[in-house]
């Protein structure tokens, strides 16, 4: 039986993954700061712990799924919040590394979070961006780069490492849930000029590609966790409006976005590159939801 250790397991992606892994008969241990709260969101079969020391020395861990990280889009980026972003990602990854360094048994694979923010600043660049692309420096790139570097230390333990550069995950939580109220009231629409790319992925594909990365032993390094057909912010707005049978004509000008959200709004809402999942497709992964119209029809 496969035993997987998960950080961030009670979050949006983690919760869906735990449900699928339970159906596969896997043994699951979730590391959480609040075990009682996490257990309420997870299947009964999942064991929730608050410290890595709760894992017996003889317990074999086949895989680690590292999803822990304070959400980036919940408000303005103050210096204090930026420090929390780092500590919740790099700090947790370093903790995992030191724990397994001291254990005789090492995990076979680490699937560690990252984001398309690794590629940095960009706006309306129509060239496809795959895993070999260069990055442009900004805070998002610095954070993701540091996160990936901390995960890469596991290679010294003989562990295969995959860093998932995740796009906007669509489901009943996350970005889509925040957009729906305005769009249902016909108050939604593009941000800025709407030309910024929005690489996205359906939650079902997000879970399936994690399983795919665990299973494919020749897959390692950075992997873009995005659907193969990214859209611009304007196209996203139109398609979401159509899925809800509502107009999507209320544009939020860029200066207003910057005023309300500061650096976070400029990097996450007004910029975006055309990220594509070359390595996933080359490895044989088949997307369930390759087109946004199909994904939105299923979700809303």
Q: If you had to describe this structure to a student in words, what would you say it looks like?
A:
The protein has helices at 12-23, 35-41, 79-101, 139-152, 175-184, 203-215, 233-243, 254-269, 278-282, 292-299, and strands at residues 3-7, 27-31, 47-49, 63-66, 109-115, 123-129, 160-166, 168-170, 197-198, 200-202, 221-225, 231-232, 272-275. The strands form 4 sheets. It has a 7-stranded parallel beta sheet with strand order 3-2-1-4-5-7-11, sandwiched between helices. The protein has 10 helices and 13 strands. The model has no long low-confidence stretch (mean pLDDT 94). The protein is an alpha/beta fold. The chain has a single domain, classed as NAD(P)-binding Rossmann-like Domain (Rossmann fold, 3-Layer(aba) Sandwich), CATH 3.40.50.720. Helices cover 40% and strands 19% of the residues. Helix 1 (12-23) crosses helix 6, helix 3 runs parallel beside helix 4 (139-152) and helix 7 packs across helix 10 (292-299).
Concise summary:
This protein is an alpha/beta fold and 300 residues long. The protein contains 10 helices and 13 strands. It has one domain: NAD(P)-binding Rossmann-like Domain (Rossmann fold).
Q: What is the element layout, followed by pairings?
A:
Elements: E1 3-7, H1 12-23, E2 27-31, H2 35-41, E3 47-49, E4 63-66, H3 79-101, E5 109-115, E6 123-129, H4 139-152, E7 160-166, E8 168-170, H5 175-184, E9 197-198, E10 200-202, H6 203-215, E11 221-225, E12 231-232, H7 233-243, H8 254-269, E13 272-275, H9 278-282, H10 292-299
Parallel strand pairs: 1-2, 1-4, 2-3, 4-5, 5-7, 6-13, 7-11, 8-10
Antiparallel strand pairs: 9-12
Helix pairs in contact: 1-6, 3-4, 7-10
């Amino acid at each position: 039986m496969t035993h997987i250790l998960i950080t961030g397991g009670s979050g949006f992606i983690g919760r869906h993954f735990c449900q699928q892994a339970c159906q596969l008969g896997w043994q699951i241990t979730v590391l959480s700061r609040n075990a009682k709260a996490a257990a309420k969101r997870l299947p009964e079969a999942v064991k929730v712990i608050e410290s890595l020391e709760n894992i017996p020395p003889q317990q074999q861990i086949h895989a680690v799924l590292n999803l822990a990280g304070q959400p980036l889009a919940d408000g303005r980026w103050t210096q204090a919040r930026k420090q929390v972003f780092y500590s919740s990602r790099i700090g947790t990854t370093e903790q995992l590394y030191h724990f397994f360094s001291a254990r005789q048994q090492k995990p076979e694979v680490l699937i560690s979070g990252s984001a398309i923010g690794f590629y940095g600043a960009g706006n309306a660049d129509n060239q496809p961006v795959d895993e070999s692309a260069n990055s442009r420096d900004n805070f998002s790139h610095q954070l993701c780069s540091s996160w990936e570097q901390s995960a890469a230390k596991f290679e010294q333990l003989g562990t295969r490492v995959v860093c998932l550069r995740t796009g906007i995950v669509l489901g009943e939580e996350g970005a889509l849930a925040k957009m729906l109220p305005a769009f249902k009231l016909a108050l939604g629409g593009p941000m800025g000029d709407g030309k910024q790319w929005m690489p996205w992925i359906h939650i079902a594909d997000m879970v399936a590609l994690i399983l795919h990365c665990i299973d494919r032993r020749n897959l390692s390094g950075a992997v873009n966790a995005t659907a193969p057909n990214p859209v611009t912010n304007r196209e996203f707005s139109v398609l979401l409006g159509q899925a809800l049978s509502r107009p999507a004509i209320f544009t939020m000008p860029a200066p207003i976005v910057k005023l309300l959200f500061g650096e976070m709004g400029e990097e996450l809402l007004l910029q975006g590159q055309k990220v594509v999942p070359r390595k996933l497709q080359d490895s044989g992964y088949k997307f369930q939801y390759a087109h946004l119209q199909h994904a939105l029809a299923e979700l809303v």
